[in-house]
Amino acid sequence: MAQKRGLLLVMTGASGVGKGTIRQELEKIEDYHYSISWTTRESRPGEEHGVHYFFKTRDEFESEIHSGLGFLEHAEFVGNYYGTPRAAVEEQLQMGRNVLLEIEVQGAMQVKQAMPEAILIFIMPPSLTELKNRLVGRATESLEKIEKRLAKARSEILMAHEFKYCVLNDDVSRAVEDIRAIIRAERLSALRLTEEELEVIVQQ
């Protein structure tokens, strides 16, 4: 029987909503390929090149954009580029492995257009006030940049209906279990049944 294509999971939400924390907890209990994005932003304390992001110069990133080959999606957010390499994602999906993208909302919309099979999951903060507290507590950016992120977050939250699922992150463990439930449900989707699988069943 042919290998069934893996699930493409796209997790997105406002900056500071906890996407990275959820992913780290999820990878302890779910087997999937995490697609590492390119970015032109500066690395934060504790981040490693090739582990958290591939940190690139603006010239390197724009060269890849113009080649027309390198990205499944790319976006510019608060003055920095972010992008998902196309080849590695396709390779893993073809092997039957689930792939998780943790990307910005603008990029997620591009993936939705490019790959309708993608399962888009929006991570929702309990409130904008709580989101601001998280960003301030992170202490990695100026208050001016945080205010820009909050303005962007408000518009992104109002786009939540564009996504297939919405997961509230007021408790990380509960958010992780919600995403695991989504994965289980999608694996059981009748749309993933192949003609070959149905023929095997009716012939037995």
| Contiguous helical run count | 8
**Strand residue percentage:** 15-25%
DSSP strand tally: 9
The CATH topology comes to Rossmann fold
Helix content: 40-55%
List its traits.
204 residues, alpha/beta, Rossmann fold, 19% strand, globular
Q: What do you see in this structure?
A:
- By secondary structure, the protein is α/β, with parallel strands linked by helices.
- It has one domain: 3-Layer(aba) Sandwich (Rossmann fold).
- Helices cover 43% and strands 19% of the residues.
- The strands form 2 sheets. A 5-stranded parallel beta sheet has the order 2-7-1-8-9, sandwiched between helices.
- The two termini are 15 Å apart.
- It is found in: Cytoplasm.
- Its main location: cytoplasm.
- Keywords: ATP-binding, Cytoplasm, Kinase, Nucleotide-binding, Transferase.
- It is an enzyme of class 2 (transferase).
In short:
With 204 residues, the chain is of the alpha/beta class. Helix content is 43%, strand content 19%.
Topology, element by element:
Elements: E1 8-13, H1 19-26, E2 33-34, E3 38-39, E4 54-55, H2 58-67, E5 71-77, E6 80-85, H3 86-94, E7 99-102, H4 105-114, E8 119-124, H5 128-138, H6 143-157, E9 165-168, H7 172-187, H8 195-203
Parallel strand pairs: 1-7, 1-8, 2-7, 3-4, 8-9
Antiparallel strand pairs: 3-6, 5-6
